[in-house]
Amino acid sequence: KNSNMKRILLIICVLGVCIGANAQENHAFRKGYRGDVSMGGLIGINKDLRNDAVSLSTTHGYSYGDGFYIGAEAGVNILFAEGITIPVLAVGKYNFIDYKISPFVDCRIGTEALIHNKDSGIALVASPGFGIDYRRLIIRAAYICEAGRFTENYHQPSYSGNVTSLFKSHSFQIKMGISF
Fold first, then answer.
1. pTM (2 d.p.)
2. Are 87 and 53 in contact (CB under 8 A)?
């Protein structure tokens, strides 16, 4: 009886140590500098504006050690409609649990430069998202809302010059990345 009880206690202790060791593998609860590189895709959900793209970005910031993270992101989105966008965003993120699989919510807010053939523009961007951190792997899904001004080179027999138009864009994004 006593040997069975000792084995059970030993197994419980070993499991506790293993769970504690796995909890330390999550970078979200490590205090200090944290960065990541991510790649993903955007799917436009607009009727008249095509903004499907492949996305590559890097994020750098500070983790407070309690699940809170503040940083900045810069990247490039290569549009299938022959153009690119260059987002620069502030990032706020919160991880819910200190374990090797940790769900999170985040929000990214900033600006984006638009370059499409000979046209250009600027947009304000807001992107609430959610996902999981699995050790060093990051998987994120987000909604992206952009509102901006696009300047087009307009050439007609009666007028030649720049025409400025306002736009709103909505996208869904899925990204996967590695933290360091």
1. 0.77
2. no
